[in-house]
Structure formats: C-alpha cells, structure tokens
Amino acid sequence: MSLVDPSADIAENYGGVTVVTAEGKRVTGVRVNEDTFTVQLRKTDQAFALFDKAKTKEVIHETKSLMPAYTHLSAADLQNLIAYLSTLRGEQAVGAEANKAQGIH
Fold first, then answer.
1. Pick from 72, 74, 94: which is nearest to 83 by CA?
2. Pick the CATH number of 7-68 from 3.40.50.10470, 3.30.300.30, 1.10.472.10, 2.30.30.100
3. Which of 6, 82, 89, 105 is deepest in the core (most CB within 10 A)?
4. Burial code of 60-72, b = ≥16 C-beta within 10 A, e = fewer?
5. pLDDT tens digits for 48-94?
C-alpha cells in the first residue's frame, strides 16, 4: 500500500529529483520534464523550477518516494484516512466504484 510504504511503487510521473546548484543549495521536487540540457521540477510548495544542467553540480534521481510513510498509524486510523481520501474523488468516482463493486461496469 502506497500510504504505508510509498517507496515500494513510485509511478514514473512522480519520481523525485534533487538538484544541487553551483552554490551547493539542494532543491528537491517531482520531475516534470528532463532533457539533455535542463531539468524541470515541481517543488514541494507546488512552485516550478527550471535548472540548466551545465550550471548545476549534480542532478540526483531519488530512489525513495518524496511522500512520507505513514507507518505510525494504527489500523483504525489508516482505515479512517483511506475512507477520507476516497471522499475526495467526488460523487461520480464514488458512484462508479460502487457500481463496479456490484458488478456493473
């Protein structure tokens, strides 16, 4: 489950990247785009940043998820969190899931 162990299965679109600037500053975010010359990140504050690779010390592709693991939650709290998150999908998605559960596709 991604909430308990988010590093177990990181979707390609959510790969974490840390850029070390020429000044030594570390900027971490989710890779939005990367090519031979640049890397573009969406930082944790949701702002976008563009870096010229020739002007950076290092570009590190993280192997661990940027999402924290929720291993400290009790089973009941984890169930409550999942129930809450499922309400954020909206009624159309919830209705579709209910229909799917009943065998209606």
1. 94
2. 2.30.30.100
3. 6
4. eebeebbeeeeee
5. 999 999 999 999 887 777 776 777 788 898 888 888 888 887 665 44
Q: Which amino acid is at 24?
A: G
Digit-coded pLDDT (tens) for 22-41: 999 999 998 899 999 999 99
* Domain segments of the chain as ranges: 7-68, 73-105
| Opening angle at CA 92, ends 65 and 97, nearest 5 | 65
Helices (H) and strands (E) in the chain, counts: 2, 5
